[in-house]
Amino acid sequence: MTDFEEKFPRSLWIRLIIYIAVGHLFAGFLWLLFEVGAKQ
Fold it and tell me: In Å, what is the CA distance from 23 to each residue of 2, 32, 35?
């Protein structure tokens, strides 16, 4: 596991998780806009 952690530092994992979370929130927001727009 130490060899794996040397290739990918902890800060990179944290940044990756943040990017994935923000991407999902943005996609969910777009989906919500389309759902609301389709009902009007």
Answer: 29, 14, 18
